[in-house]
Amino acid sequence: MPDQQANPTLPKAPTGIEGFDDLTYGGLPAGRPSLICGAAGCGKTLFATTFLVNGATRFDEPGVFMSFEERADDLAANVASLGYDLDGLVAAGKLAIDHVRVERSEIEETGEYDLEGLFIRLGFAVDSIGAKRVVLDTIETLFAGFTDPSLLRAELRRLFGWIKERGLTAVITGERGEGQLTRQGLEEYVSDCVVLLDNRVEDQITTRRLRVVKYRGSSHGTNEYPFLIDHEGISVLPVTSAELDYAVPGGVLSTGIAGLDTMLGPGGFHRGSSILISGQAGTGKTMLASSLVDAACRRGERCLVFAFEESGDQIIRNARSLGLDLDQHVAAGRLRFEAARPSLFGLETHLARMHRDLDQFRPQVVVIDPISALRGSASILQATLLRMIDLIKARGITAVFTTLRGDGSLMRDDDLGVSSLMDAWIKLQNLEANGERTRTLYVMKARGMSHSNQIREFLMSTGGIRLVDAYIGAAGVLTGTARLIQETQEKAVSELRLRETERSLRDVARRRSAIERQIEELRAGLDAAQDEEERLRAEDRLRAARVEAERQELTARRSAAE
Amino acid sequence: MNDITPDEHSPETDPDHDPGHYHLRLYVAGQTTKSLAAMTNLKRFCEQHLAGRYDIEVIDLMENPQLAVGDQILAIPTLVRRLPSPLKRIIGDLSNTEKVLVGLDIRPKADQS
């Protein structure tokens, strides 16, 4: 995209074609002729018609359609499917259609002439409705009707001069020619703005592209932009912007799976991040994404799912087996499925459709399931995914991509290439052992948060998705029945150990009580000995006292006799 | 479809209908040299080849621009042979008499005499 803004002095006439007015910063040059060229079937007439119809209905600028190829009735019928009511606009005086029939066989040239009749017709039609816009589709037909090209060229030059003089914003269509933009070199005369429409087929897939070749006095997007023609008309999508300056929305987005949320530090993914879910067929990628979508819808957010391998109904049905009712979200307008085979359009067209759907639906969560379904050469695929992620991130949308990780090295390379663009990567893997397959999940990376590095077993049932801690031990990582067996074994072993310990404890207690008993006995013996000692000492003291008393009595008796 | 009502005269309902009669209409835009030359050439030519069995209607689109659509006029001057059918268109100032004869399906005078 050009970095400078359009010169404000150059007035522009908006075409009302989504995207085109953005990349030309306002539309076609007002009051000047612009050339729209391209090969047959490029959408030139539709571009021109849209320019007129939008002018009449949205910008209050009536227009004249001068058709050199299609009759007015055909023209009206061709665009009726887009909801353009040409007859109604004609009746309302906002549009005039003049079919100019040029039939070589009916014209005999007998001398000097000019194309004043064309001027008069155009002038009359313009004056009759006060037209501001004019379409000449395809004026080169004149070259088939008249033999004098130099006179025609002079007259065309005069016509374009006349258009400028009258201040009419004109769209002139021209068929793509060999070696130049148009067959008759109209680009020489219409020098203000030239838009090239292209319809290229690669690998049997058609992609429409538009390029502003020249825009005098104004900056414009210079790239080739894919554009769409479908039931909503024409829309151009400038999706090549590759700036990384988008604002990051705050907040955390819960995945709706309790076990997965706890594996992530903040309790979910950062909003606006891109999340890759990789895994082989049957690992539960779509169901994991469905759970996330269901959780988002329950919170009242809007989700858009681009399904490349299944129809929306099929996803809804499959999600029902997990107990998720996605139907109610679709009915409430919070969930939309856009299912299309990847081979239906080229990558550019897929991007373009995505761009339009994102802007229309304005979702908070987008699921692309799976990106590995997109086909193309590695470099183109990489570029497309990069732009896809930019497209989504620039809008602050949380994106969930799923991818099948095949065994082929190319796929693995692609995966690695993609993974660097992703903020988070959940890997689903089927572990096969002992004749059993188990789903496992782990978080490979999650930018800007701490996360569990452990493998989890991933169980899907009618109750939803549940994560179980896998057994990690000496015997390796065990899941499924093996995990159950191992767990039972461990339980038995630990029970045995428990019983043994208890027995030892009981033994020790018993021994301890025996010792205590012995201590009691000894203490009793000790007490008895002490008592004996006391008694003997008391007797001894008593005897000594008696001897003393007897001796004193003897002494007294002896003294009396003396 | 168009707000400009074509000025259609069906040859069958024309009162002057007779096989040899020529009903010619010359479209011009103002009094330009080409227009004047065409008028002079046409008059001379008709007197020479169609004396007594022609009528000429001159339409100036500057005055009646709405009439240009009906006969699919692009070039000026244009001579339209309304009768006898089929409708023929001759453009230019009619200076090339031979081409005018071919255009109007008139055999040269030499054959008639």
From TrEMBL, chain B:
It holds the Pfam family KaiB. Residues 1-22 are annotated as: Disordered. Residues 1-21 have a biased composition (Basic and acidic residues). SUPFAM superfamilies: Thioredoxin-like. PANTHER family: CIRCADIAN CLOCK PROTEIN KAIB2, KAIB-LIKE PROTEIN 1. It comes from the Bacteria. This is Circadian clock KaiB family protein. InterPro entries: KaiB-like (IPR039022), KaiB_domain (IPR011649), Thioredoxin-like_sf (IPR036249). Residues 25-106 form the KaiB domain.
